[in-house]
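Help needed: design a sequence for this.
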């Protein structure tokens, strides 16, 4: 069986910790902005449609118009958008099951909540390199400029 996800507890130096905090802050903001636009009906999530199609529409819009996206690697931004869409699709399917009276659903489903610092940062395979015993995570050009590093090394 192949492992698809790895979770690490890292000891970070001050620069690494500041970069992670900055990325996490932008991740939370983007998730909450998308969440808000869906909650308020400004953005439709097609329950039956393909998740990737919806993600690319939102991604293109955020890359052009939202300054938070400049601080996130493209794959990280894609994952935030996908997570928000999946959260809503899950909510909609649970809500539908609840309304049909299915017994597995114990209580009325709640809409996805806003993230208050607890959003996860996802680095995809394309954003990770391993050189010897060092892991290098890709960061955006804005982050490289701000922290004067090429990548986040562990």
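Sure. Designed sequence:
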């Amino acid at each position: 069986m192949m492992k698809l996800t790895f979770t690490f507890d890292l000891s970070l130096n001050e620069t690494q910790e500041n970069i992670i905090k900055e990325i996490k802050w932008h991740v939370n903001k983007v998730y909450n902005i998308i969440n808000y636009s869906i909650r308020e009906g400004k953005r439709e999530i097609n329950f039956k449609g393909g998740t990737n199609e919806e993600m690319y529409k939102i991604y293109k819009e955020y890359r052009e118009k939202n300054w938070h996206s400049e601080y996130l690697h493209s794959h990280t931004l894609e994952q935030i958008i996908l997570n928000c869409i999946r959260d809503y699709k899950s909510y909609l399917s649970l809500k539908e099951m609840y309304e049909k009276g299915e017994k597995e659903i114990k209580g009325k489903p709640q809409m996805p909540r806003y993230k208050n610092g607890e959003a996860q940062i996802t680095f995809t395979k394309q954003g990770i390199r391993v050189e010897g015993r060092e892991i290098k995570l890709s960061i955006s050009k804005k982050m490289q400029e701000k922290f004067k590093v090429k990548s986040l090394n562990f």
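The chain has a mean pLDDT of 83.
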